[in-house]
Amino acid sequence: MIASDKLTPPPGAAEPVRHPDAPAPGQLLGPHYDQCFGCGGDQPHGLHLAARAGEGVSVTAEFTVKAAHQGAPGLAHGGVLTSALDETLGALSWLLRTITVTGRLETDFLRPVPVDTTLHLDARVLAVAGRKIYSTAAGRLGAPEGPVAVRADALFVEVKVDHFVRHGRDREIQAAMADPDQVRRARAFEVNP
Ligand SMILES: CCCCCCCCCC(=O)SCCNC(=O)CCNC(=O)[C@H](O)C(C)(C)COP(=O)(O)OP(=O)(O)OC[C@H]1O[C@@H](n2cnc3c(N)ncnc32)[C@H](O)[C@@H]1OP(=O)(O)O
């Protein structure tokens, strides 16, 4: 399986650099936003995915497929699995200390994923070219060394915090800016030199 041209790092792309203040390997990263569909603890409809910092510029995460995530009887919906990959890839931002959003995401579905399965995900940054972050992720069935069920290649694009202020619905932006925990999480990314 080969990523499309848009997901192939251009000549001259740099090796990713782990930020000196990145969370230590093994550290639980916690949600970047409590209402996030992927990781938010206060999001009743969410995946409640929990990610940890890995070595280098990598993360691991776990996501257990619930009955609410079905597409076919007893099997996870493909879009939900893509969301889990997207969130895991997004968590790489904590290692770079850069705010990023998904620009492009290509998913391969290799095996069906039954309800109640815990998907063990891992993601790493492959290369960086200016604002463009090239990364890859996989989700394995039942164990960190289990068979690969889904994988993805992605291009994330660095943005400033204004991106969310400019585009987000006012009600949620005002609530986030009034929440000291949320402001602290956003600031953690702004110290990037
Ligand atoms: C707090 C940190 C943790 C965050 C975790 C989040 C986890 C979940 C992640 C998500 O789901 S984020 C939500 C889904 N994504 C979005 O809503 C992004 C919507 N798209 C945009 O806002 C803009 O299109 C984007 C910021 C991605 C880019 O717009 P810009 O005007 O800033 O930049 P531009 O269009 O010039 O693109 C910058 C470079 O990226 C390239 N690019 C952008 N989109 C691309 C694409 N889709 N495919 C290929 N290349 C792309 C583009 O060609 C260009 O390359 P060059 O610098 O070489 O010219």
Automatic annotation (TrEMBL):
Q: Which subcellular locations apply to this protein?
A: Cell projection, Ruffle membrane; Cytoplasm; Membrane
Name the SUPFAM superfamilies for this protein: Thioesterase/thiol ester dehydrase-isomerase
Q: How does it sit in the membrane?
A: Peripheral membrane protein
Q: Which UniProt keywords apply?
A: Apoptosis, Cell membrane, Cell projection, Cytoplasm, Fatty acid metabolism, Hydrolase, Lipid metabolism, Membrane, Transit peptide
Q: Tell me the ranges covered by the Thioesterase domain, including all copies.
A: 74-133
| InterPro entries xref list | HotDog_dom_sf, THEM4/THEM5_acyl-CoA_thioest, Thioestr_dom
Source domain of life: Bacteria
**What chemistry does it catalyse, as a reaction equation?**
decanoyl-CoA + H2O = decanoate + CoA + H(+); tetradecanoyl-CoA + H2O = tetradecanoate + CoA + H(+); (9Z)-octadecenoyl-CoA + H2O = (9Z)-octadecenoate + CoA + H(+); dodecanoyl-CoA + H2O = dodecanoate + CoA + H(+)
Concerning CDD domains, the annotation shows: PaaI_thioesterase (cd03443)
Q: Where is this region: Disordered?
A: 1-26
Does the record carry Membrane as a key word?
yes
Q: What is its EC number?
A: 3.1.2.2
Q: What is its main location?
A: membrane
Per the record, the similarity remark reads: Belongs to the THEM4/THEM5 thioesterase family.
Q: Which PANTHER family match?
A: ACYL-COENZYME A THIOESTERASE THEM4 (PTHR12418)
Under which name does UniProt file this protein? Acyl-coenzyme A thioesterase THEM4
> What is the organism field in this record?
Streptomyces synnematoformans
